[in-house]
TrEMBL record, chain A:
This is RNA polymerase sigma factor. It comes from the Bacteria. Signal peptide: none annotated. SUPFAM superfamilies: Sigma2 domain of RNA polymerase sigma factors, Sigma3 and sigma4 domains of RNA polymerase sigma factors. NCBIfam families: PRK12546.1, PRK12547.1, sigma70-ECF. Keywords: DNA-binding, Sigma factor, Transcription, Transcription regulation. The keyword Transcription applies. Residues 102-153 form the RNA polymerase sigma factor 70 region 4 type domain. The keyword rRNA processing does not apply. PROSITE patterns: SIGMA70_ECF (PS01063). GO terms for molecular function: DNA binding; sigma factor activity. It comes from Cognatishimia maritima.
TrEMBL record, chain B:
This is Anti-sigma factor NepR domain-containing protein. It comes from the Bacteria. It holds the Pfam family NepR. Residues 15-47 form the Anti-sigma factor NepR domain.
């Protein structure tokens, strides 16, 4: 019994949008990218090995599309309007030390290659091997990108000591007061 | 390596970073799908495009 591939595709659109956002940092560009990815996936669905990881397969298509579009649009100014952090609820994270918006702002500053590596491994739970395959690089490269991404985030967010606590409180207070004005 | 060597963050810090990223990611992934995507899939399904599989269900 064949499962309609579009049914399974649908399940991954949310994750594709999130991955696209993390690459493009722009919601409009991200959704264009997802659209293109879905069309390509549909056309090439026969090359998908049933039973293998469809999300990884789709992420690979999305990623390749992103880099080829970007090469074409090289002249355009990269529009990173911070929508990655803006798209998220601005409420502070009460169960941790980090404020989500600050966190995503810091994340936005990482190089493309580090963002994608950390998203795949840290957020999506890909193994280093799966992430390496998705990005077309060696496993060691992924490991080092993930390591550098975490180190840089820790740096940016000053996660080395209890400073982060104070910072979060201060920023949270700022956001709350800003919201009540708006 | 020409980069200055950053210290590897504590496992605890790495975990916290991943946890936050996962939360952000899940939050984005769970946003309601814009109509353009459901429409797109319908369109793709309708157009077939896969000659080897006749649409015997509709």
């Amino acid at each position: 019994m064949t499962v309609d591939p579009s049914e399974e595709l649908t399940e991954h659109i949310g994750a594709l949008r999130a991955f696209a956002m993390s690459l493009t940092r722009n919601s409009a560009t991200a959704d264009d990218l997802v659209q293109e990815t879905l069309i390509k996936a549909w056309k090439n669905i026969d090359s998908f090995q049933p039973g293998s990881n469809m999300r990884a397969w789709l992420f690979t298509i999305l990623r390749n599309t992103f880099y080829s579009l970007r090469r074409k649009r090289k002249r355009e100014v990269e529009d990173t309007d911070g929508s990655l952090s803006l798209s998220l609820a601005s409420k502070p994270d009460h169960d941790g030390r980090l404020n989500m918006r600050d966190f995503m702002k810091a994340f936005d500053q990482l190089p493309d290659t580090q963002r994608e590596a950390l998203v795949l491994v840290g957020a999506q739970g890909f193994s280093y091997e799966e992430a390496a395959e998705t990005c077309g690089v060696a496993v060691g490269t992924i490991k080092s990108r993930v390591g550098r991404a975490r180190a840089q985030l820790a740096d940016l967010l000053k996660l080395k000591d209890d400073e982060a606590l104070e910072l979060t409180d201060r920023v949270t207070a700022g956001i709350v007061s800003h919201q009540s004005i708006a | 390596m020409s980069n200055k060597n950053r210290k590897t963050p504590d496992p605890e810090v790495a975990e916290e970073i991943d946890r936050n990223l996962k939360r952000a990611f899940d939050e984005m992934a769970q946003e309601p799908l814009p109509d353009r995507f459901t429409n797109l899939l319908e369109q793709l399904r309708a157009s077939g495009g896969r000659s080897d599989e006749a649409s015997n269900d509709s």
